[in-house]
Structure formats: C-alpha cells, structure tokens
Amino acid sequence: MTGVKAVHAAPRVDAVLLDGKTGLSKHSLGGKAEGIERMLALGLPVPPAFVLSTGVYQRFRAESSRLPDDIWRRVRDLVHALERKTGRTFGGGARPLLVSVRSGAAMSMPGMMDTILNVGMTADVHQAFTEQSGDSGYAADVRRRFAEQFERTLGRSVPADPWEQLRQAIEGVFTSWTSPRAVAYRRDRGIADDAGTAVTVQAMVFGNVDYNSGSGVLFTRNPLTGGAEVYGEWIAGGQGEDVVSGRANAQPLSELAAQLPGTHRELMAAATRLERAGGDVQDIEFTVESGRLWLLQTRTAKRSPEAATRHAVAMVREGLIDRHQALDRIHADQVEALLRPRVDPQALTSARVVSRGKPASPGIGIGAVALDSSEVDDRRDRGQEVVLARVTTEPDDVPAMSSVHAVVTERGGATSHAAVVSREIAVPCVVGCGTGTVTRLAGRVVTVDGFSGVIYDGALPIVEAATAADSDLSALTEWARAESDAPAGADLLNMLRRRSSRRSFD
Amino acid sequence: MSAEIQILQAIRFKGRPAGADLASAVGSSWSAVAVSLRLLVESGRCVEADGCYRLTPAGRDRLSSLTAAERGSIDRESLADAYERFDKYNSELKRIVVDWQLKDGVKQNDHTDPGYDAKVIAQLVELHAEFQPLLADIVDLVPRLNHYPARFKSALDKVRAGTHAWFAGPLIDSYHTVWFELHEDLIGLTGRTRIDEAEARRAE
Predict the structure, then answer these.
(1) Confidence of residue A494 (pLDDT cuts 50, 70, 90)
(2) Does the first or last residue of chain A, that is N or C, have fewer Cβ atoms within 10 Å of its Cβ?
(3) Is A396 within 8 Å of B94 when comparing Cβ atoms?
(4) Helix, strand, coil fractions of chain B, as percent rounded to 5
(5) Average pLDDT score over residue span A45-66
(6) How far is A266 from chain B (nearest CA, A)?
(7) Residue A88 pLDDT > 90, yes or no?
(8) Quick one: pLDDT at residue A129?
(9) Considering CB atoms only, which of A395, A418, A424 is closest to B184?
C-alpha cells in the first residue's frame, strides 16, 4: 500500500527525524508522520520534520503526563537537526525557525486533537521577521495567531522561553488524546483508547510572507461529484489553517495557475505521484512560500458516496488498482445513495440548511412554501411549484398535499398523518421540524430532501437517480458477479453486503 | 335529510368532496344529502363548483358553533374514558399502517411479497375485530358518529378483496382515512386540539 512497511508489531519508543526511510509503521508514526514519510520517500518537497512516536506517548502517560528527560534531550537534538536542514535557528537569530506541533493517531480522528502552529515565536523573532520582511504587519500577524492558538488550546499564556513553549505544546498535544471529545469520538467508532497519538514537529513555512505566497488544499480528484479532475482551493497570503477552517476567501486552483504557473505545474505533478504511490485519491495540504512549493500533509481523501464509487471504478480502468480492491472500497450504502435522486453534491457545499426534521417519505421536492390549502391553490394558479408547511396536517389538507412537491410539518413522527398520507401519494415529506418552522419557511423557495430530512434554502440542482444502466454501476456489478461466481441476475447491493459481512469475519 | 353537523364536518374532513362521496361519508343516500346540501349552499355555508363542495368561512363558523353545542350535550366523562381506551388501538393502527407502507421501518413496501402483505392485512383484521366493542360504545355516546362502523367495514372488505388503496389511500374512504376522521371527531368532541394531542404524542 505504501512505501513504509509495518515491521514493528509493538510501537517502538522513538523520536526520529523523518527522512522517507525510518521504516516505522503507521501504528508508531501516526497518520500525519506516515504521510510525510511517503512524500519524502518520493523525493517531494516537505518541510523538515521529526516525530515522537505513539510509543513515546505510552511513556508520557506512564510518567504522569510529563515528557521523560531522555526524550526531551532527544527533542532538543532533533530541533537542532531541523535548524541545520533549514539554515535557521530556533527562538531567535537573523533567520529564526518556528515549528508546528501536530497530533496524529494511526486511526484518523479528524479535528479531535490539538495542533499548535508557530511555536518558537518570541519578541526577538518578531523583531527579526519584521526586519527581514520589511513588513511589521506580517510578523505581528504570525505572533498574534500563535498567542491566540496557544492560549486557546493550552489554557495558559505563552512562556517567553521558546523551548518551554515547545515542551508545553508537545505535552498539550499528547494530552489532547484524552480530551473528552476525542474519547467520545473513539467510543463512537470503537477505536481503542490505549493506542495513543504521535506528535509531529515540523519546520514552519509561511504562506503569508509575501504576494507570491499562500496556502491551499488539493484533492487529486473531485471528492464531491466523483469527477476525474483535480479539485482544490487556494488562499493567496494565507496560512494553512485559513483554508482548513474555511475562514478566508478561498479561490480555485486556477488562480494559483495564473499567478505562479511553474509552482502550479509542480503541485499537479506531485499530486499525480502521490495518488499513484498511495493507490487512492489523496487530500493534500500545501503552502507556497515566496513561489516555492511545500507539501505539508497527504492522506486518503474522504469523499461523497458518489465520488467513492466513481473513483474506484475509474482507478481500475486506469490500471491503478484491481477489481477486488475497487469492490473492497465500496459499501452497499454508498451504491444505494447513488440509486436515489439527490441534491447535486457540488451545490451542497454552499447550500444553507433552513430546517431539519425526520425523513418521512422519500424523494426530493422543490417549491415555494405555502401555509395552507388556499395559499397552495393561489400559488399554483400563478404557475408556481409549491411546498406545503403545516404545524400538523389534518384531513382537509389532503387535497392540497396531493398537489404539492413536498410536505413539511413542525410536529409528529414517522406514523403521523402527514407521513402516512405523503407515503401513500408518493410526495416527499419531512416531519417534526420543530416549533417555528412554518413561520420561518413562509413564502421562501426551499428544497426538501425526504431521504435525509434536511430542508435547504432555495432551489438546488438535483441529480437524477442512477439506473442499472449507469456504466460505473454495471461495471461493478459485472466484477462482483465474476468474483463470486454469482448468477447473471445477482444484485450489486446484495453482493456488496455479503462481501462486507464476509470480510468482517476474516 | 341528514344532520347539518354531519355534512359540514364531512366537507371539512374531505376538503372538496363530490356530492356522491359525501353521501357515503355520512352513511346516507344521495337524495337525502342533496336536500341538505342545497340548503347549505342557499344559506351561504358552502359553495359548489363542478359537483364538488367546500365550506365558506360562514360554514366553518357554523360548524364550530354546532360542535361546541354538541360538546355541551354529550356525556363528556364517558367520552373521555372512551378516548383513553381509543389511544391503545390508535397506536396499534398506526404501527400496522407503517408496516403496510414500509418494511423494517425504512424501506418502501413495493407490495411484491404477497406473504408480507397478507400478514399485515391479518393484523388489521384482528385489530378491526377487537375495536368493534369500543366503536359501538362511542356510537352509543354520540349517535352522530353512527356512519363509522359501516365505513370501516366497507374499507376492510375492499382490502381483503385485494384492493390495496383501501388500506391507507388518501382522498378515498380507506381504513386509515376513516380512522383518522374518527380520531379527529373524538379530539373535537373531547374539547382537545390536534396540536395538544401531537404534543402528548397521541396524535401527530
């Protein structure tokens, strides 16, 4: 699967420089450092970094949440190694080095643990950056971001000593493994509590240093629609967190291509290599510092059901994976989602949810909201498509219900009058949206998703349900039949379900 | 001639019923209902278009005052008891209707499995039988509701004869439609509102 072999059964107690050949398993490295190892193994430009393995976490726990002295001495040596590689010095000097301190468990736990950027920021560094860039705004920006994040995450003010900053940041990130939200997340997903997280310490590069700098994220294929094209966002003059948090105004990658065509070409080439080496669609974070490309992170992309299905088939056709691997990656419920009409996944990224309830009758309906039968009639007379919204429905609402595109109620559940009637007449219906929904929706055009129970503002584009004739689905069906010697008429959903129940026994 | 309150209530329930559907909804002949309807149209309580009838605001007001007067004349304590007994059957009927429409509560019943449908119909037949004594008590308390037993039986007979729409189809006197109207009548007669009842999860 990757260039890194799982050679150690138990996590090794280690703090090592990442060089693409540590030979450590993902179990020891955590997802983040493992991704960096993969990128370094391909010779791609990655800011120098080292990792404290999950084995170090075990010692940290065993020693009352304190970093052991021998490990701390090792950390100081490794920071000096980063200094040598970058030609910068930690905590001061004419060319100061700042580092990021990131969590990274073997099992993906997105956003559940802490990360602290810009560690090593001191008054001296602030001064040096100001002199270096000739722009006091930039240095102040970095210092402000660091102080805010440090204080918010660790609940104390920033120490003046950069080494003390680093030590507290590492201990804080290790401790975030046992934060209530991380514990709850693991419990939900059945991830073991004793695995622990690794910590990756990486030299910072700056997307906010000048006009030819910025940060972005890139998916090697479209994670929403399943299209084969690269999909990504770029923020000129931003740091990585701006893109990830959606804080600043992101632009399409074509803006990067227009501004820095060489850097863009290099990025596209790296993306292709990472996808090939990883054998799956990658989600890559990158920064451009004064026109120079740096890759910060790569991981297997999370995708919509549609994208997961279409990517797997496309990758078989391109010879990147085999048919069994494609079938391994697809779940029956993802295919099921494709077999229903659905809101265009691209439109969903900017769609505004106006209400949520319980899905009571399947289908998607779009229309202007009317509050009673006579308003339904009025709007229909004016040629509008209509959605009926009621606190609860009553018998005399039935004629109106049969002439609208969807029904929404404030109260009730799956056995309510609205639900029963809507199912009979095959009108999409969402019930139990809560008090005040009717007033809130009055007169608006909405899109009602009777599969998920979500109501969106405006008329969103709808993707028709795929049929058995869909070329990707028919390819998968054929492959699944061949694999299991299933009869010619065997159903894809059933075959996928059988497959996954078989695999869970393996 | 049928009681005015019966006809007004039936029109309210059905929205815009045709005259013939009104006759069966109140358990009367078309000629008897036609007389009442003509009087209602003349007095401005309902209007007719293309053979279908609907209430005017005056008709709604008239219905409200008639039902208020009716509430004052019935044995409300006994009816409240009956309504409490009704609750159990109501929950059961809803469960059966959902089983009829959905398999495992999520997947639409496409009615291609006769064995599954037969099992659900058998549950409806059983519920219908168990419900008859209470229904008789209710009709004793409020004679205006005397059309319900025949309407339930008619819907059930059609379901058993294989016409699925009579199980829960709206806009026709399906078992669920008749049940829902009875429930609505009981809510009104006991002085409750559907919204209160939704809150108490007895009606949604």
Answers:
(1) confident
(2) C
(3) no
(4) 70, 5, 25
(5) 94
(6) 49
(7) yes
(8) 86
(9) A395
pLDDT above 70 covers what percent of chain A? 94
Q: With b meaning 16 or more CB within 10 Å and e meaning fewer, what string describes A318-345?
A: eebbebeebbebbbbebbebbebbbbeb
What value does the mean pLDDT take over residues A81-97? 93
Contact A396 B14 (CB under 8 A): yes
**How many structural domains is chain A composed of?**
4
B80 and B137 in a single domain? The answer is yes
Q: Are A119 and A90 in contact (CB under 8 A)?
A: no
Domain extent, residue B150, equals 74-199
Instruction: Read off the pLDDT band of B58 (50, 70, 90).
Output: very high
Asked if the Cβ–Cβ distance from B98 to A414 is below 8 Å, we say: yes
The mean pLDDT value of chain A amounts to 89
- Asked if the Cβ–Cβ distance from A392 to B204 is below 8 Å, we say yes
Which pair of tokens denotes residue A391?
A: 């606190």
Of residues A437 and B106, more confidently modeled: A437
The answer to which of A301-310, A373-382, A493-502 has the lowest mean pLDDT is A493-502
Report CB contact under 8 Å: A412, B195: no
Q: Are residues B101 and B194 in the same domain?
A: yes
- Is A118's pLDDT higher than 50? yes
- Over residues A6-45, the pLDDT tens digits come to 444 455 568 999 999 999 999 999 999 999 999 999 999 9
User: Residue B123: which pLDDT band, with cuts at 50, 70 and 90?
Assistant: very high
Q: How far is A412 from chain B (nearest CA, A)?
A: 4
Give the closest of B95, B97, B170 to A398, CB-based.
B170
Same domain flag for B93 and B49: no
From chain B residues 27-86, the ones with a CB under 8 A of any chain A CB are none
| Helix or strand (DSSP H, E) at A67 | none
- What ranges in A50-161 are assigned the alpha helix state H? 54-62, 69-86, 123-133, 136-154
Residue-number span of the structural domain to which A237 is assigned: 205-303
What CATH code is carried by the domain that includes residue A88? 3.30.1490.20
Eight-state DSSP code of residue A363: S
Gap from B154 CA to chain A (nearest CA, Å): 19
Taking contacts as CB-CB distances below 8 angstroms, the residues of chain B near A493 are none
| Interface confidence (ipTM) of the complex | 0.79
For the entire predicted model, the pTM comes to 0.68
Judged by CB atoms closer than 8 Å, whether chains meet at B108 and A415 is answered as no
Interface test with B, best of A376, A411, A438 (most B CBs within 10 A): A411
Sheet strands (E) in A204-302: 214-219, 231-236, 251-252, 282-289, 292-300
Residue whose entry in the numeric block shows the structure tokens 């072999």 = A5
Residue A388 with chain B: CB contacts under 8 Å: none
- What was the pLDDT predicted at A48? 97
Using CA coordinates, name the residue in chain B closest to A422.
Answer: B170
| Tokens standing for residue B47 | 């209007």
Phi first, then psi, for residue B115 (nearest 5°) are -65, -45
Q: What is the pLDDT of residues A465-491, one digit of tens each?
A: 888 788 999 999 999 998 877 777 788
Note whether residue B204 is domain-resident. no
User: Based on the domain organization, do B154 and B93 belong to the same domain?
Assistant: yes
Rounded to whole angstroms, the Cα distance separating A209 from A214 reads: 8
Using a CB cutoff of 8 Å and minimum separation of 24, what contacts does A3-7 make?
A: A3/A37, A3/A38, A3/A41, A3/A42, A3/A277, A4/A29, A4/A34, A4/A37, A4/A38, A4/A41
Contact state of B204 with A397 under an 8 Å Cβ cutoff? no
Task: With beta carbons under 8 A apart, name residues in chain B contacting A416.
Answer: 198, 204
